[in-house]
Each structure stands twice: as C-alpha cells, then as structure tokens.
C-alpha cells in the first residue's frame, strides 16, 4: 500500500511537471513578443510563460489551508514545512566592541555574509530596470524606513543603525546604484549598428558580436518626469509602491511559508523578478510616455502587478496576526506626517500652483494690454490722431 501511494505521488509529480513544460514550450513559440528582442524574443516569451505558471502556483497556495499550504512546500523540498528557528538579528550594535579582546570588530565581520554581494548585485540590476538615479535612491531609503517601521513584526528587520544606513544604503545599495548608472551611461553612448555574424571577417569581431548579442538592440532613455503632470506623478508613486510591496513580500513570504533566507527558492524568486521586472518597467514607461501608440499596458506589467498582489494576499491569509500588529505610536505619527506632506505637495504642485500661475498669466496679459493702450495714446499713432480729430470736431461744434 505504501509503495502504491509513492507510485501515485511520483506519477502526479511527473504529470504536473510535464504539463508545465508543455505549456512553456507552447508559450515560447506562440506567445506575443514583448518590447525586448535581445538576446532573443523567445527568451522573454519564456519568462512571460513562467509568470503565468508562478501566478497559478500562488493562486493554488492561496486557496489552501494554512497548514496544508505549508506542508505542500515539502513536495518541492522535503526540508521545508518546518517552523523556522528564532534568530536575533539586532543584538550588539557596537562597531568597536572593547569587551571582545580577540576581535573587537566582530560585529562588522558578522554582517559581511553572502547577503552583502546579493544586495549590491540586486541594486545594480534594479538600477538597470528603473534607469533613474533618484527613483532608485528613494526606493532604497524608503525600504530602510519600512524596516524600521515593521521590525516589531519581523525579527530580521531589526538591524543596527550602521547596518541600515552605512552598509545597506551607502555601501551595498549606493555602490550598486552607482555602478548601474555608469553602465546605463555606457549603454546610452554605445553605437547600435548591428552586422550579421557571418559577415564579420575576423574571429575577434565574431566573438565581440556574440557578446553584444546580450546587450539591448537599441537604447531608450527613461525620463520619468514625475512633476510634469498629475498622471505621471500618480504613476510614479504607484511604481514605487508596487516595488516596495514586492520587496516586503520577499521577507513576509519566507516568514509565513517557513522558508529559510538562504533557501534556493528565495534566490529563484529574485532571479524571476529581475527578468520579468525589466520588461514590466519598459512596458510601463512606453505606456506613460506614448499612450497614443501604446494604448494599453503591457501583458508582463499586468502579470507582475497580479503576482505582487497575490503574494500579499497569501501573507494576509497565512499570518494575519503578525501583519495586524499595531505600529508603535511614534512610527504612526511619522507616517501620518509623511503622508500629509506628500498630499500637501501634490495639491500645491498640481492644483494650487496651476491656479496661481493661471491667475498671474491673466493678470499679466491684462497689464500688457493696458500698457499698450496707454502707449498708443501717448505716442500719437493712428489711433491717437483719430481721437484728436474727434476732440477737435467736438470743440468746433461747441463754438458754433
């Protein structure tokens, strides 16, 4: 009986995997092309189909009970489905610990783990996706504020101040953003003149052409211009919100589904978002920049938004207690103040300022019109001579 159950389980597993592979093969050959054509359109069609499979997997997990959903992860990895051990992430925050005579800088060395290069490469790739320095910096700083605000919910958000601002924002994130912007600058200056591989005479030229196959076919500079109109401002705010929500989902999903931070599924999810996020950002920018040509939002952008929302729903269902732990009072005050400032600036920039500028323009036009009229009367031009003739005729009539 036990062998029969194992056989049924193995057959079910093979059937699911085979069904997914057939769908991926169909999508790679028949799905609609996206905005990217390098290294090959089939590569991006593959990730579009992976997005559909991942979204269906999330829907399946969402409709399971909490216990069944966590135990289902054992079918992917037998080591999952076990509660995570509690860890102290904050601890001693002294940069120089005089109590440890052998290694007083042990707190710094303890933080220099595999997540440091992951932070750097992560923000390097995010910069290539967003293509804007100030948006990257805002998202980086905002996420640190979110970690401060939510450290009472997730223990791994509790970090030392220098870990937040020096190691994360300045060193890892900042250096990754800087290198990403330098790469974007090089890509914008590069000459995009393609030649067939077999038309290149030298082997060095052929190898160079093969390497450049993994660079963009042409270059589009992202100019978000969030303050140019209310529509673009709301769109940029929405992009930042979804970006931050996707970042938070990374940590909350690990917590509610009992996945260790170093598990390969966490890394696979990040690789997935790097590939689909770049396409989604390009589709969003095209839709914002030229809505007459791009009349609707791209398919990959819709899928990324649906995946982010579904992940958040899983977190809400699987652990509503942790998610509804009330914020500390001073944290609530800070967020209320920040929201009020953003709303005030929005109202001033797109409503009050426009009304004020329109009123000043009308007033300026009236003053110019009045000035021109007075100038005509004082300079003795055609209009003033006619007035003088009329006044002379009136005087003659009075004399008569």
TrEMBL record:
**Where would you say this protein principally sits, based on its record?**
endoplasmic reticulum
Name its pathway: Lipid metabolism; Phospholipid metabolism; phosphatidylserine biosynthesis
Its family? Belongs to the phosphatidyl serine synthase family.
Which parts of this chain are annotated as the region Disordered? 373-400
Q: Where in the cell is it found?
A: Endoplasmic reticulum membrane
UniProt name for this protein = Phosphatidylserine synthase
List the GO biological process terms. Answer: phosphatidylserine biosynthetic process
Q: Name one GO cellular component term.
A: endoplasmic reticulum membrane
**What function is annotated for this protein?**
Catalyzes a base-exchange reaction in which the polar head group of phosphatidylethanolamine (PE) is replaced by L-serine.
State the EC number(s). Answer: 2.7.8.29
User: Which species is this record about?
Assistant: Hemiprocne comata
Q: Which key words are in the record?
A: Endoplasmic reticulum, Lipid biosynthesis, Lipid metabolism, Membrane, Phospholipid biosynthesis, Phospholipid metabolism, Transferase, Transmembrane, Transmembrane helix
Listed InterPro entries: PSS
Q: Where are the transmembrane segments?
A: 41-63, 133-150, 162-181, 233-252, 264-281, 301-318, 330-351
What GO MF annotations does this protein's record show? Answer: L-serine-phosphatidylethanolamine phosphatidyltransferase activity
